[in-house]
Design goal:
heterodimer; A: 4% strand; B: 645 residues; alpha+beta; Penicillin-binding protein 2a (Domain 2); Beta-lactamase; five-stranded mixed sheet; five-stranded antiparallel sheet; 24 helices; 21 strands; elongated; disordered C terminus
């Protein structure tokens, strides 16, 4: 293998790769346990294939100097927005939402790709601003940059993915020198918005019926015996009944009898918690924490601000995914349809994570290059 | 590097450190959440997980009944049991499989196959392994409840039709819904559901079918019921009231007997179908559970076509009944002088080919000099050959098509056929050739390419006798939007054509033997020499397919209350002889019932079954037994509808 100019193979973040591989292994094990007795048998093999593709993609992305990628940020942004519009016009509808376009015989979720493009776009924007303190003007510019694709994703409708764009902006702005007055004003606005979502007289006007149902069933799970409240309740029962030691691999009744909804994907942590107990959760969340801290460390050691923003964008996206998904599994957040990175089954989501980690590797490889 | 890059190495290290703390804090909070669920409240959730062994056993909604016009039950349901296999514990299922196979007489391979086929369903949903449990099966399951906990009985209601395939083509039958039906149902139907497959069962499936409910019980880890959850009640299907008159239907079934053919009785004033019979008919009770592949194949390949509803799907040459269209066209159009006479020597030459009159084959004396009235009365073919030749196919087609031939009547039954009314335009479109004038000669006596269904002929004759008012035939009593088609006919035309049809029975015509005392029974016989199915060319020359006997009769002479169209296939007899008595039996029964009603003698015995009383068994119907008085063939006809069980 020939190294890219100025980089060596040794410079890859082998610790990061090890953590990554460990999390993926937990995922494949639990996907197998959740599906081996059902019509979905063999799904873990499909996931392995996606992981294989992911590692290759990550390697390729790490070889292209991230400065070249950032050079193309405006064009990438336009492509991303165009793709979102295309999805709305000609996209493939599955599970009631237009999110998929066919690529190479598989259906890819365009919004997964758009997340990456926003990470790149924001990194470029904040690197270009380059001031100690972020002015209100630049903050609003950044907000508009994120706002356009966010609205397009909301139109699909895909509330979960749209929400992921928010922490990208927040983390980016924070690191770019967000002033506390602005932070206070926007936090207040955010609190009001969240309040509005949970306050029925207002939410009636801004949310789709199924989204309102999810909020309602989150607040009052017992009133909704078969809907998403039921899903949350079943997930909590699975987690709680697992106890400290867990019921053992393949022995989770909630999992094996099919009470946990999409137990191989969005609710995989629920299945894991039932079968492996609190000790298993401790191990899994420990791995995720290690992964995120390792990302921050890479950001701290980046050669320049552009690289730092890139890495922290990835960390923000992954961290938000983990937070929202795991909080949902323990019934602390409504069902949003956000998968758990690297453990949940899914092609587009897995590819996104590996592409993102590829960017991180990219930054790391070039930390000593001048 | 590009213009935008400032190679700035000052990183916000303090803020990055804050990010690290936030990550640690976030994971810590999540872990606290897990600690609460998995350690503090663990016992509670463990109990709930145990409670979660909920068995959901479906409650099958009964289908709505079908009643006749007087409220008597034609189709209802009978209780039955299906055997369910509960699959929540695969190991337990596997252990008991050989015992179950043995006890219920199901091959163990079949059981395994069913288990494999249903892997996609959640495991807490049971599957049906035997749709119709015998008494022995029920006893077996009851006595082995303790040692085989994975079996459960599901109470279902099966469709019960009147015996002897009574009215079975009109009612249709139910069966497991097909994939197309599931797709078209917008999620209302699931695999394994029963739905209407043909006839009224299919047409009004949405009304008849209810919504299944669900009984939910909590079982402990060895499958014993410990508690009940609120059940979801089944919503029964709605019943429908038909226009069918059970008494007339009974007479029609008995009078046609075992002969192949069809009967349709209509009230031309409203379009209501009073009776509809097609023989041979399969017994839909045989399909009420599950029809075997072999039986299904046998029915499909049977050359007598028992699955064909001849009343609406049998497309045959109308024969001499078509002469009524010809005569109407002649009276109405004046294309040919009304006083035209011809001489019938029993045969004639048209376009260089010799055509015979029916008297030639019957070795009867020739008709001699014939005008239009005598031509209808005696059904003289030579007259109508001449008339057809002089009117031309387009004028014939205009009248026939205008009065409904070649078009579906729009009856509320699936898969109605349209028949065919040929025209110059049709041969050009279908065969890319010119119309041969010689073909007009055949069409003029209802032969050649022209075909129609018994229902179309009933509508046709009823409509003409009603002065050109054609009501859409229908079977639902309170049908909305019954369409009415008018084909303007002059009063003089209607008067003449109805007098001709009256004469055919009452003034020494071809139906003279059918005369009914005190009733203005009118009609027209027909004897078609070929069958109208696509196989005509192959088997048409065989002797047993020589004749299709038709008779379309109605009463009274003008503005009739009832019109009856009867087809008797392969009878070898003239229409007046074979089909006429069936029509007469029905018309007589209609008037007998009407007379009793006005004298107060007739009461609809079964009106005590109020709407909504699902328990009323069809078997308790007390049908008046009507002995067909027709001399021809009644002796060798076994009673087709033996309703008194």
């Amino acid at each position: 293998m020939r190294d890219a100019p100025g980089t060596t193979t040794r410079d890859y973040d082998w610790w990061l790769l090890a953590i990554l591989a460990a999390i993926c292994t937990l995922g494949v094990i639990e996907i197998y346990s959740a599906t081996h007795g059902s019509s979905l048998v063999g799904m873990h093999l499909k996931q392995l294939r996606w992981l294989g593709i992911g590692f290759v993609v990550m390697f390729i992305v790490s070889r292209i100097d991230y400065h070249l990628i950032l050079d193309q940020a405006p064009i990438l942004y336009l492509i991303g927005v165009a793709a979102l519009i295309a999805v709305l016009l000609v996209g493939h509808t599955r599970f009631g939402a237009k999110r998929w376009i066919p690529v190479l015989g598989e259906f890819l979720q365009v919004s997964e790709l758009v997340k990456l493009i926003i990470i790149v776009g924001l990194a470029r924007f904040f690197a270009e601003v380059n001031t100690e303190q972020l002015s209100l003007r630049d903050l609003i510019k950044a907000g508009l940059l994120v706002g356009l694709p966010l609205v397009l994703i909301l139109k699909q409708p895909d509330l979960g993915t749209a929400l992921v764009l928010v922490p990208l902006l927040v983390v980016g702005a924070f690191l770019a020198g967000l002033q506390w007055q602005h932070a206070a004003v926007f936090s207040l606005a955010g609190v009001l918005l969240v309040g509005a979502v949970f306050y029925p007289p207002v939410s009636r006007h801004i949310l789709k019926p199924y989204q309102r149902d999810r909020i309602t069933s989150f607040l009052h799970p017992e009133e909704d015996a078969k809907g998403s409240g039921y899903q949350l309740l079943q997930s909590k029962i699975a987690v709680g009944s697992g106890g400290f030691w867990g019921k053992g691999f393949g022995n989770g009744t909630q999992n094996q009898l099919g009470y946990i909804p999409v137990r191989y994907s969005d609710f995989i942590m629920s299945a894991w918690a039932e079968e492996q107990g609190f000790k298993g959760v401790l191990f899994a969340l420990g791995l995720y924490m290690a992964l995120l801290l390792r990302l921050v460390q890479n950001a701290q050691r980046a050669k320049d601000r552009a690289g730092m923003f890139l890495v922290m964008g990835v960390a923000a996206a992954l961290g938000f995914h983990v937070l929202v998904n795991v909080a949902m599994v323990i019934g602390a957040m409504p069902v949003t349809g956000i998968p758990l990175p690297l453990m949940s089954y899914g092609g587009s989501a897995t590819l996104f994570v590996f592409l993102a980690i590829g960017l991180v590797m990219n930054v790391r490889l070039r930390r000593f290059v001048n | 590097m590009s213009y935008w890059f400032r190679n700035d190495q000052r990183l916000p290290q303090a803020r990055l450190a804050v990010a690290s703390y936030i990550i640690v804090g976030m994971v810590g909070v999540l872990l606290l959440g897990f600690w609460k669920l998995q350690v503090i409240d663990s016992d509670k959730y463990a109990q709930w997980a145990e409670r979660n062994r909920v068995r959901s056993i479906p409650i099958i909604a009964p289908r709505g009944r079908m009643l006749d016009r007087d409220g008597r039950v034609l189709v209802d349901n009978r209780p039955s049991f299906s055997v369910l296999l509960l699959r929540d514990d695969p190991a337990l299922v596997e252990k008991n499989l050989p015992t179950i196979a043995d006890g219920l007489n199901i091959p163990i391979e079949d059981l395994r196959e069913q288990l494999v086929n249903t892997r996609a369903l959640p495991k807490f949903q049971p599957i049906v392994i035997k749709p119709e449990a015998s008494d022995a099966d029920v006893a077996y399951i009851e006595s082995h409840r303790a040692d085989i906990p994975v079996l459960e009985m599901l109470s279902v209601s099966r469709r019960r039709y009147l015996p002897g395939a009574f009215m079975s083509h009109a009612t249709g039958y139910v069966g497991e819904v097909s994939e197309q039906q599931i797709e078209a149902s917008n999620g209302k139907l699931r695999p394994g559901d029963f739905g209407g497959k043909t006839g009224l069962e299919r047409q009004y499936n949405d009304i008849l079918m209810g919504t299944d409910g669900m009984r939910r019980v909590i079982v402990n880890s060895v499958g014993k019921e410990v508690d009940r959850l609120p059940s979801q009640e089944a919503i029964p299907g709605k019943q429908i009231q038909l226009t069918i008159d059970y008494d007339l239907q009974t007479v029609a079934e008995q009078s046609l007997g075992e002969r192949e053919g069809a009967v349709v009785a209509l009230d031309p004033r409203s379009g209501e179908v009073l009776a509809m019979v097609s023989h041979p008919a399969p017994d839909p009770n045989d399909f009420a559970v599950r029809v075997s592949k072999e039986e299904w194949q046998r029915l499909n390949e049977d050359e007598h076509k028992p699955l064909l509803n001849r009343a609406i799907q049998g497309q045959l040459a109308p024969g001499s009944v078509f002469k009524i269209v010809m005569a109407t066209a002649m009276y109405e159009s004046h294309a040919v002088p009304e006083n035209m006479t011809i001489f019938c020597p029993g045969y004639g030459t048209f376009y260089g080919r010799q055509f015979k009159c029916w008297v030639y084959w019957s070795q009867k004396p020739a008709h001699g000099v014939v005008d239009i009235h005598r031509a209808v009365n005696q059904s003289c073919d030579i007259f109508f050959y001449t008339l057809g030749m002089r009117m031309g196919i387009d004028m014939i087609s205009k009248y026939a098509s205008g009065m409904g031939l070649g078009h579906k009547t729009g009856i509320d039954l699936p898969a109605e056929e349209a028949g065919l009314m040929p025209s110059e335009e049709w041969v050009e479109r279908a065969f890319h050739r010119r119309w041969y004038p010689g073909e007009t000669v055949s069409v003029a006596i209802g032969q050649g390419a022209v075909t129609s269904t018994p229902l179309q002929l009933a509508r046709l004759i009823g409509g003409i006798a009603s002065g050109g008012k054609f009501m859409q035939p229908h079977m639902l009593k309170d049908a909305q939007n019954v369409s009415e088609q008018t084909f303007p006919l002059k009063d003089s035309t209607v008067e003449k054509i109805t007098d001709d049809m009256y004469g055919a029975i009452n003034q020494g015509g071809t139906g003279a033997s059918l005369k009914l005392q005190g009733i203005e029974f009118s009609g027209k016989s027909g004897t078609a020499q070929v069958i109208g199915y696509g196989t005509r060319d192959r088997i048409g020359k065989e002797k047993k397919f020589l004749d299709n006997a038709w008779f379309v009769g109605y009463a009274p002479r003008r503005d009739p209350e009832i019109v009856v169209s009867v087809l008797v296939q392969e009878s070898g007899k003239h229409g007046g002889e074979a089909a006429g008595p069936v029509v007469r039996d029905i018309i007589k029964a209609y008037y007998d019932k009407k007379a009793k009603k006005t004298q107060g003698q007739y009461t609809a015995e079964n009106k005590k079954y109020d709407i909504g009383d699902g328990a009323a068994p069809a078997a308790s119907i007390q049908a008046p037994v009507i002995k067909p008085e027709a001399a021809s063939g009644s002796a060798d006809r076994p009673a087709a509808a033996e309703h008194q069980r």
